[in-house]
Design goal:
With 328 residues, the chain is an alpha+beta fold. 41% of the residues lie in helices and 21% in strands. The N and C termini lie far apart (68 Å).
């Protein structure tokens, strides 16, 4: 009888604990199923480790007889886009002005607020910004599509301001959206204070710029614009006796018409300020390999393209990519 009384007392204590606070399902799980959950977590961890090992085997590797390489620009990198693998780095986390490369972020934010490509916009007096040739003049009526192309093909500072105004946002709201998108993309060392890239305070790193290239080159509208060697703008309301007036703008990217480039260019953006130096960031493809390059702070206009081309040539000469097999 004493034994039975003890057993009943223990059972009663257990059920009092189990039902206390209305948390029976949670406590049952802790009491009975925790070991099973731990075993499942261990199995998942082993599967993830196996997957990581398999992916590591697919990473490109420097050849045994590879040559050394040094970038003369202030900062730069090369990234294997598909594998998220850095092929080359030089001060890739150094914060520097990025000049007109900022326009890629402006383009992304504008596309979030695009009123429509065929929307007609009237160029205002306050749209004008210094830094390059004017392609539109106050009072002219133009399609939003043409403003977008002028902003990216000709790196037109005034066109960027026109896009901001056409978006329905104030310039402050637009810049806030640029910084929010940078944060969402993991560009933790990037800051924008205005949308054109004219300010030295628009700063980033080569690593962050590579993320910007990845995101912007996913968009077909941006790719079409930055790949256009030239573009014909349509002014709807001038001259008075004609239906429209056409102006031709040319791209600032010299690699678009380079005969020496051994890879296909997917897209890119130039930038220049006194403090930023000459910059270029782009995406390229050769066979099955997609490479992003970033060159910040090159010595002159030609150097940013020459450095990019030299970096690409070194990569494809000195790296080898594993071939796909049934196992990988």
């Amino acid at each position: 009888m004493a034994l039975l009384t003890t057993v009943l007392a223990v059972a009663l204590s257990f059920f009092n604990w189990l039902f206390a606070g209305g948390q029976m399902p949670t406590k049952l799980g802790q009491y009975f199923w925790h070991p099973l959950g731990r075993a499942e977590s261990t199995l998942k961890a082993k599967e993830q480790a196996t997957t990581c090992d398999a992916l590591a085997k697919l990473q490109p590797k420097l050849k045994t007889d590879s040559e050394s390489f040094s970038l003369s620009a202030s900062s730069g990198l090369a990234l294997d886009w598909r594998r998220d693998f850095y092929l080359y780095e030089k001060d890739a986390d150094r914060e520097l002005p990025i000049a007109s490369i900022s326009k890629l972020m402006s383009a992304l934010v504008f596309l979030d607020h695009n009123p429509g490509w065929n929307q007609v916009y009237t160029i205002g007096e306050n749209d004008k910004r210094d830094g390059n040739k004017l392609n539109f003049f106050p009072g002219e009526k133009v399609y939003v599509r043409d403003i977008f192309y002028s902003a990216l093909v000709a790196s037109d500072n005034s066109a960027i301001i026109s896009l901001v105004n056409a978006s329905g946002l104030s310039e402050g709201e637009f810049v806030d959206a640029m910084n929010q998108k940078a944060k969402a993309l993991g560009m933790d060392k990037t800051r924008f204070v205005e949308p054109t890239g004219l300010s030295d305070l628009n700063t980033s790193t080569a690593r962050d710029v590579a993320k910007l290239i990845q995101e912007s080159m996913k968009d077909m509208d941006i790719r079409r614009a930055v790949l256009a060697d030239k573009y014909e703008l349509e002014i709807i309301n001038k001259p008075a006796k004609a239906k429209a007036q056409h102006r031709v703008i040319k791209n600032t990217d010299q690699l678009l018409h380079s005969d020496d480039l051994s890879v296909k260019i997917i897209g890119g953006k130039t930038g220049y300020l006194n403090k930023a130096g000459y910059c270029f960031a782009g995406s390229f493809q050769k066979d099955d390999q997609k490479i992003i390059t970033v060159v910040l702070g090159a010595a002159d206009q030609d150097a940013r393209f020459a450095e990019t081309q030299r970096l690409l040539n070194w990569i494809f000469k000195n790296y080898e990519w594993p071939k796909a097999t049934a196992n990988n």
